[in-house]
Amino acid sequence: MSVLPPWPDRPPLRRVFLRDMVVGAQIGVYPHEEGVDQRVRINIDFGVRDEPGLVVGRDDLSRTVSYERLVQMVRRIIGEGHVRLVETLAERIATGALADERIRVVRVRVEKLDVFAELDSVGVEIERRQP
Length: 131
Prior knowledge:
Elements lengths: L12 E14 L10 E13 L17 H13 L6 H13 L4 E11 L7 E9 L2
Antiparallel strand pairs: 1-2, 2-3, 3-4
Helix pairs in contact: 1-2
């Protein structure tokens, strides 16, 4: 996986990420995909604003976002039922992440695995920002 360039945003952001979450999802536009779980890999990068004047090394959860909350959010979205497009799933995940006002920008990559024998995956990556 390639390294993403830094976000050109002020004030500085702390980059937090969830890597290679592989889950079964009901996804796809074809009739044979209805009601069938397919493996998808989800990656989420998000920028959390670094508060000015924070004490360096302050060990405080308020400085970041809970990984667990985001993992649970992804599981909930996938559990809501069939989604036709990986783009739709990515948008729902991005919207859920941005519901946390501390998250200023989010990148979501959704990949369907096991689609073509000669490919590792197919999918989409989107970036969304707080207004």
